């Protein structure tokens, strides 16, 4: 079984109550704290983080000139609708 490559170790400070929850979950699941934290980060990135990354991608596209003028887009939509109606 291949393993996911890991980064260098990170130093992280957590609020005491959050760390206590992480430790209780880890103990209950018979897993290390890092396993719980990685799962929590994956969950965050799959949801809220995905929105942030999508915004970043859009900003990068705008900076790179990958944009469309709204008036041109609306005119194209109007032309499609007119062709369907005709």
Give a written overview of the molecule.
By secondary structure, this protein is mostly helical. It has one domain (16-85). Helix content is 70%, strand content 0%. It is built from four helices and no strands. The longest helix has 16 residues, at 48-63. The relative contact order is 0.05. The model has no long low-confidence stretch (mean pLDDT 93).
Question: What is the secondary structure topology, with strand pairs?
Answer:
Layout: H1 16-29, H2 33-46, H3 48-63, H4 70-85
Helix pairs in contact: 1-2
Question: Features of this protein?
Answer:
single chain, 86 residues, mainly alpha, elongated
Report how far apart the termini are: 60 Å
Categorize the overall geometry.
elongated
Structural class: mainly alpha
Instruction: Tell me the domain tally.
Output: 1
Q: How would you spell out the order of helices and strands?
A: HHHH
Query: How many distinct beta strands?
Result: 0
Strand portion: under 5%
Short account of what is shown:
This protein has 86 residues and is mainly α. The protein has helices at residues 16-29, 33-46, 48-63, 70-85.
